[in-house]
Amino acid sequence: MIVTIDGPAGAGKSSVARSLAKRLGFRFLDTGSMYRAVVLTAVRRNVPLDDATQLADLAASIRIDVDDNSTRVDGVDVSKAIRTGEITQIIVHAADNVAVREILSKRQREIASGHDVVTEGRDQGTVVFPDADCKIFLTASPEERARRRQADMEAGGESIDFEEVLRRQNRRDEEDYNRPIGRLQKANDAVEVSTDGMTRDEVLDELERIVLQHK
Fold first, then answer.
1. What is the pLDDT of residues 97-119, one digit of tens each?
2. Element (H, E) at 43
3. 7 φψ region: left (φ > 0), alpha (ψ -120 to 50), beta (else)
4. Residue 26 has pLDDT above 90, yes or no
């Protein structure tokens, strides 16, 4: 069974999807970490981010492995390194690269093949897994999402002003909804869940209920 969870940045997709997968006994697929891994590797190997061909060649040449707890590039754990503000700011170079998206989408389908999977991103239910058994669109107000993002960054040792987090997030929202490829959109058959005012356990309970309805 394939369960897709799409939604805007800061909606809590990764943490909720990971917990939901654990609760269901499914595999968790964090697709955003794969794009982050590409740009992190490009920076480390001095591959020009604005050279679409070189970036795609890099994406095709490296092995990206994701599991419930880590992201690895050619066997090296990059889980923490890909979550910095710097990588968030430049992920667009991989996310808007047609060839990179094709390479990573194919890899995501390979990872999910033959498994029960909870996968999250912004185009999982519309592009990568259009025939998924259950599609969820997870969202929250801009302020709530910015607060969560700030907390995550501070937990990782990165201090940043709330207004700056909100400004960056609003800019990314506009970009994500208007991207020429892989843009953020709710699949026609997706169930929308707004998490404002909900506790983490309440969100998980609601998502589990939705998944079980689709089994």
1. 999 999 999 999 999 999 999 99
2. helix 31-44
3. left
4. yes
Classify domain 1-26+116-215 by CATH number: 3.40.50.300
30-114: CATH topology = Rossmann fold (3.40.50)
CA distance 136 to 186: 8
Predicted confidence at residue 180, as pLDDT, reads 79
Domain range summary for the chain, segments of one domain joined by +: 1-26+116-215, 30-114
Which residues does residue 77 pair with via DSSP β-bridges, in sequence order? 72
Q: Where are the beta strands (DSSP E) in the chain?
A: 2-6, 27-30, 64-66, 71-73, 76-77, 117-121, 134-139, 191-194
**Cα 56 from Cα 119, distance rounded (Å):** 23
Distance CA 33, CA 174 (A): 21
Reply yes or no on whether the pLDDT at 14 is more than 90.
no
Q: Beta partners for 5?
A: 120, 136
Q: Beta-carbon neighbour count of residue 76 at 10 Å?
A: 11
